[in-house]
Design a protein that fits this description.
heterodimer; A: 441 residues; alpha/beta; 10-stranded mixed sheet; 9-stranded mixed sheet; 10 helices; 25% helix; B: 250 residues; 6-stranded mixed sheet; 4-stranded antiparallel sheet; binds adenosine-5'-triphosphate; binds magnesium ion
């Protein structure tokens, strides 16, 4: 039976399902109560549908229909398949933290020889035995968003990372989500990264599947807080299986004079939504968010960003590129709010979509809400096809149609990929884009 | 066998006939010059030979070494040795010139069943060709033609011709936008490629280019046809008297 049936069943059926899963979810007392509250919020709303403005282009009731049962804990065979998948996507010089089917896998992770000032725990550990303040922090994401609420109710595992004041990590960290299950199932994960003052870190999130993984659902969230004068570089690569769902949320807050550089690429998953809220809580900070969607077949990928300029003197830059082929559907929703006292805000958003077929669709919804008067804000959007004259030039030089397209697509997404500061990670993103292009044939 | 044979070619663009039965035969080793007023169809002919979409061939044929060229895709034509130096080379932001040249050369080699050039092998070849055309290396690191001056774009076309070593080179106004020194360098580059087996079709408005690249034949095009053919002295004649005498003939 589904643990969290969501086809708008009666309240009691939903609660029963949650009750069954509850025994397997870590944390008692306050944690359990917070889960109850989150589940109640979710149960009331159910899966978001197109009549909810924020989900207008991504109707989960139509696309996902139901939330699958909680994935069983992985067995030895699944761990071993996950190990080979992890190897395939391994990056040189990166500390790997692996979650298999939503469960932290210590044997596949590198936990030895942690740099001074770096602390890594599992979510399960923290929910079971951590201090109350940290547990409360883990429940900060707002239950008003039903998919966040569901994740809060069901979160099973994840990693909790602390970087102490004054510590700049030399080694990037990578959270690898691997789906390996042989039965269709859902995994619910949540991770947390706290970067102290004057600190620095690089975090990569990868979503992959093993050979033969069944249709699965990833429900993930990441909470990030960046201390004063700190910098976080973040790369997110979704290469989930083609029949997978990935619903992920990010909640990021920046202190003063902090810097957040984030890059996300969706080339996998059948249906995905990445929704992130970025809040400027201290003055003089800067955020660069760059995103790429590479979609074909019937893929649907939605990136929904909310940039909250709550304080003065902060800059944000959003660059988003979508390449959409066949009958795929790309969605970008970018909301920027500049609150009344946030003077000298400089916020810009630029989105471009490249449609490779007549049936491809790209929706773009920019929303600027500006309540301060001394600000520089702007957004721009273009949608178009590949330039025929450029294609012909390349073909006249010997490139086949697919090769010519591939070169122009690489150039189109290049500007966003170039924003990745770390050379190794940039190459990782280029390689992921390359895999997508090669799979097109 | 002729290298390139255009026979009674009729071409339409957007319902309008531009070429009205044009014929041209090019043999290995020959250099042909095509001259003619603006709008007479010179670039149209070069585009149709290279396989640019958007042109409707309503009559005639084009044979390359006896094979039907019109049946081939533009990349097949390139691999077989048809090269067009464009009158207006496009800019391709985000595609580094070096990478483009390497990918293109290997694509052609692959189509011909030849081995792929490794990066060092390719670089050696490319730098040598660039040096002989006075093309600085940092130009090759930029996006294809991006921010190139008019003359640099033309030199980049000649560079490609030198690298790809095609059998038929069609040069569409390679002299436009080149200063006198650049013209000499580019012409030297073209002359260096003249050989027994290779043919050139040089489209130009100016006799001056033909002082550097001396043609075997000169053709006058007017209103979509070749209206007169002759030796290199025909170009001098045109320089003196203009195209007016041919307008009626067309
Ligand atoms: N895509 C097009 N649509 C409509 N008309 C076109 C198109 N391409 C070419 N033509 C027309 O065809 C005619 C021949 O053009 P073409 O460019 O071949 O001339 P040309 O001889 O190369 O001229 P120039 O010396 O100015 O380069 C012109 O009248 C031009 O306007
Ligand atoms: Mg022309």
């Amino acid at each position: 039976m589904n643990v969290a049936l969501v086809k708008n069943e009666t309240g009691s059926a939903l609660s029963d399902s949650f009750a069954i899963a509850r025994d397997r979810l870590p944390g008692a007392d306050k944690v359990a109560a917070a889960r109850e509250a989150a589940f109640a919020a979710y149960a009331q709303a159910g899966l978001p549908h197109r009549r909810i403005e924020d989900w207008k282009y991504t109707d989960l009731r139509a696309l996902m229909r139901e939330v699958l049962p909680l994935a069983p804990a992985p067995d030895a065979a699944e761990f071993s398949r996950a190990a080979s998948a992890a190897k395939l996507h391994a990056i040189e010089g990166v500390r790997r933290l692996v979650l298999v089917d939503g469960v932290f896998a210590p044997k596949l992770s590198e936990l030895g020889g942690l740099e001074k000032g770096l602390g890594i725990r599992t979510l399960r550990e923290v929910l079971e035995t951590g201090d109350a303040a940290l547990q409360t922090l883990l429940f900060t994401p707002d239950n008003a968003n039903p998919m966040v609420a569901l994740n809060s109710a069901m979160m099973t595992d994840g990693v909790v990372i602390d970087v102490a004041d004054g510590v700049v990590l030399t080694q990037p960290l990578q959270i690898v989500h691997i789906a390996s299950g042989t039965v269709p199932a859902a995994m619910f994960t949540r991770s947390l990264l706290r970067l102290g003052k004057d600190a620095g870190a690089t975090l990569v999130e990868s979503y992959i599947a093993t050979e033969g993984a069944k249709a699965y659902q990833v429900h993930d969230s990441l909470i990030i807080s960046i201390g004063n004068n700190s910098r976080l570089d973040h790369v997110r690569l979704n290469e989930d299986g083609r029949d997978a769902f990935n619903i992920s949320s990010g909640v990021v807050s920046l202190g003063a004079h902090a810097h957040f550089n984030t890059f996300g690429m969706m080339s996998g998953a059948g249906v995905s939504r990445y929704q992130a809220t970025i809040v400027f809580a201290g003055e003089g900070s800067r955020v660069e968010t760059n995103g790429v969607n590479l979609l074909n077949g019937k893929q649907h990928a939605d990136t929904t960003l909310f940039m909250d300029h709550a304080v003065p003197h902060c800059d944000s830059r959003e660059i988003f590129r979508a390449v959409v082929d066949d009958r795929a559907h790309s969605v970008f929703q970018g909301r920027i709010i500049v609150r009344p006292h946030a003077q000298k805000t400089d916020a810009k958003m630029m989105t471009r979509a490249l449609l490779l077929s007549d049936d491809a669709e790209a929706d773009n919804k920019p929303e600027l809400e500006i309540f301060a008067d001394d600000v520089t804000c702007g957004h721009g959007a273009t949608t178009g096809a590949l330039d025929e004259s450029l294609l012909f030039y390349l073909r006249a030089r010997g490139l086949s149609e697919k090769e010519a397209q591939a070169l122009l697509i690489q150039a189109f997404v290049g500007e966003a990929i170039e924003s990745i500061v770390n050379d190794g990670l940039r190459e990782l993103a280029i390689a992921a884009a390359q895999r997508w292009l090669e799979a097109r044939g | 066998m002729s290298l390139l044979e255009v026979k009674d070619l009729k071409v339409r663009v957007e319902e309008r006939e531009i070429l009205h039965g044009l014929s041209l035969t090019v043999n290995p080793g020959e250099v042909h010059a095509i001259m003619g007023p603006n709008g007479s169809g010179k670039s149209t002919l070069s585009h149709v030979i290279a396989g640019k979409p958007g042109y409707e061939v309503t009559g005639g044929e084009i044979l390359f070494r006896g094979e039907d060229l019109l049946e081939m895709s533009p990349d097949e034509r390139a691999a077989k040795g048809v090269f067009l130096a464009f009158q207006y080379p496009v800019e391709i932001p985000g595609v580094a010139t070096m990478n483009f040249l390497h990918v293109a050369l290997n694509a052609q080699r692959k189509a011909r069943g030849e081995s792929q050039l490794t990066t060092p092998e390719f670089l050696k070849k490319a730098y040598a060709a660039a040096a002989s055309l006075n093309i600085p290396r940092d130009m090759l690191k930029r996006g294809v033609n991006v921010g190139f001056s008019g003359g640099e774009k033309k030199r980049n076309e000649i560079l490609q011709m030198a690298l790809f070593e095609p059998a038929v080179c069609i040069l569409d106004e390679m002299d436009s936008g080149l200063d006198i020194d650049a013209l000499r360098v580019a012409a030297d580059g073209v002359n260096a490629l003249r050989s027994q087996g290779r043919a050139m079709v040089v489209i130009t408005h100016y006799q001056r280019l033909l002082n550097y690249i001396v043609p075997d034949f000169v053709h006058v095009m007017s209103k979509g046809r070749v209206v007169k053919s002759g030796g290199k002295e025909l170009a001098l004649e045109l320089e003196a008297s203009g195209y007016a005498q041919f307008e009626d003939a067309a």
